[in-house]
Fold this sequence. Notes:
284 residues, four-stranded antiparallel β-sheet, globular, 10 helices, alpha+beta
Amino acid sequence: MTITLLGSHDGVEVIWHRLKQFGLMGFNPASAAPPFEVMTLTRGILRVAYENEVQIVEPGATILMTPVRGDVCIIALEDAEFVYATSKPMFKTYKDGVEHFHGLATEIAQKDGYTASHCERIRKYSVLIGCHLGLSARELLSLSCGALFHDIGKIQIPDEILRKPGRLTPEEFDIMKMHTIYGRDMMTSPSNPFLHIGSTVAEQHHERYDGSGYPYGLRGEEIYLPAAIVAVVDSYDAMTSQRPYQRPKSKKEAIEEIKTLRGKLYDPRVVDAFLKVVNTFDDL
């Protein structure tokens, strides 16, 4: 997201937004008197999910969002620009939030030895699958945030374990598995007030459909669906990425492995949606 404050007067702010393809922003119901909020799309196409309803918005459309009584999730289906006006000062909150999010994502990626684009790839691929599965606005917000920060708990894993080039010992693997719990706790901390919505994804993204995952050994549809989506996408990206301890699989090899593990490690609903959209990943 790129944002610019166009003007401010008497408590009203007019903000210009640019969302890259599959960029996302969201709104939650106001806890106090709801602000006046309106947006006008000038370029691109937006997918606007309000609770369980979905609307596709094209240039020239104006959306009035007062009062917001449920979660709203806005996704750019292609690069989009829009003007957003609100009676509640929001620009500094947006600016600080965007900078904080990207700083955290970069720290996670560098700690884990990935390029800084890894977390954003996981987020975009996951959101694409979530849209295909018809997730609600709140589930999409949870999915986007959780996918971007699914590995935030690795910040607390010692480097000698996280970056070990060979196989981990059972004791080291037990420590590694704790990153899911650390991630959940970090995302529900008062120091990260905007991350709590994705905490269950961070906690469960290593659970597996047959119960062989961690930290709880959840099975089937006990696993939170956004977390099950990240499980597939994260595995695919890991398979096809260059890592110090493994050669990358080809895209075809990775897809075949995920198909083979459908209903075993991975939720069949997610695998079926993944197979329908995976060929578009390279275009994102």
